[in-house]
Amino acid sequence: MSSDDIAITVEEVSKRFELYDKPSDRLKQFVMPHLRRLLRATPHDYFREFWALRNISFEVRKGEAFGIVGRNGSGKSTLLQIITGTLTPTAGSVSTNGRVAALLELGSGFNPDFSGRENVYLNGALLGFSRAEMDKKFDAIAAFADIGSHLDQPVKSYSSGMVVRLAIAVQTQVEPDILIVDEALAVGDALFQKKCYRKIEKLLDNGCTLLFVSHDQEIVRSLTSRAVFLKTGHAANYGATPDVLFSYREFLQQEEEAAFLDLQKRSTGGSLNQATTKSYGSREVEILGVEVRAADDTPQTVFYAGDKIKIVVDCVSHVDIVNLNVAFRILSKEGVKVTTWGTLNEDMRLPESSADDMFWNKRFKKGERFKVSFSGACNLGANLYEVQVVVAREYDKFYGNQQVLHWMDEAGHITIILKNKEYVFDGVCDLGLRSTLEQETVAVKKLDMGAGSIR
């Protein structure tokens, strides 16, 4: 691939910060090492090193949507600041090819004493646009921000939502070559977020490169094709977005697992299978297999929309246990979460008088094997889908406190097709709505053209 096809190149980037215990140490660091060198003594540092990033490398192609995920403090924002040029790396290099627009910290790039209108022109100038060019873009920016008369008020009087509206309006309406977004959309309301995502998708269609950071894994999955997972400043995984997100979820699960150690005593008996690369969990209850079947109970992977479908989850308990929930999730090939359902969802709908019928109340003994089947009509739209399954211990009967025992990605795949001229619909699913016709006879008044009136 030629360098002209690359929008962003990050090569062996590291960033070190110096942490001082007290202000006087900073002054000592400025003076003492020089004096010790003059005296031919070994210099001494008065700070502690903190490496926010270590040897990060990746490339983003032109027109590509690339994601960055990781917990708070993993180095995401530091990396974005280095890419945009507001921070310099301690080691390594970054190069960008094209005009860069960035949505980083809330209100960054805005002068709080200037009005919204003045900040629009100021940001345009920083992006390299002339006053005349910004005059042409201003109406579109104002319409997208939709903050009304506040546009002529000082930005310091804005709410956080108004600030992010104006910032996003400026950065997206100037149609940059590279758009960098760091959690900025999380501040806006749901309708504005939807508006922003539509605009981002339009920019991508027009060849814009997107570098996207968010804690919302489903948004990252649906928007981006490749991603990097940062963990304590290192690139823990880099590649296709679904694989990177799996690594990220597995890491979060391990963190959650550690939090449960003081709540329960784990059994050491049983032989647990740790080899599966697309699953994780303590495996106190283990998923042995998942099968998708047709109405006649035969294994099947291709269905017509509306066909009966059965998802069978085969499990074994390695401990005596109660309060389980077996559930599944279906994702489209675009990574959109279509539906989730589990035994706990059904238990929540049962009255307390049916406690004996609740799966949540059933006790399983060590070594006991059991299967859970989910059956129903498959009213999904034509697409390829992934089935993910999980068995979890629910400490509350309403998804209030959950411990994942075994999670499995890519437990199954199904393809849904439509019967042309028989059952056709567009979109994610058929809601099952049906039309009814209500007719009413209405008296029609006679028009008297000669009198020029209606009788």
Automatic annotation (TrEMBL):
Lineage, top ranks: Bacteria, Pseudomonadati, Pseudomonadota, Betaproteobacteria, Burkholderiales
UniProt organism field: Paraburkholderia gardini
PROSITE patterns, sorted: ABC_TRANSPORTER_2 (PS50893)
InterPro entries on file: AAA+_ATPase, ABC_transporter-like_ATP-bd, ABC_transpr_TagH-like, Bact_Polysacc_Export_ATP-bd, P-loop_NTPase, Wzt_C
Protein name: Vitamin B12 import ATP-binding protein BtuD
Residue ranges constituting the ABC transporter domain according to the UniProt record: 33-257
Keyword Transcription listed: no
Encoding gene, per UniProt annotation: btuD_1
Highest rank taxon of the organism: Bacteria
Record-level Gene Ontology MF annotations: ATP binding
Family statement drawn from the similarity comment of this UniProt entry: Belongs to the ABC transporter superfamily.
Keywords: ATP-binding, Cell inner membrane, Cell membrane, Membrane, Nucleotide-binding, Transport
Gene3D superfamilies: abc- transporter (atp binding component) like domain, P-loop containing nucleotide triphosphate hydrolases
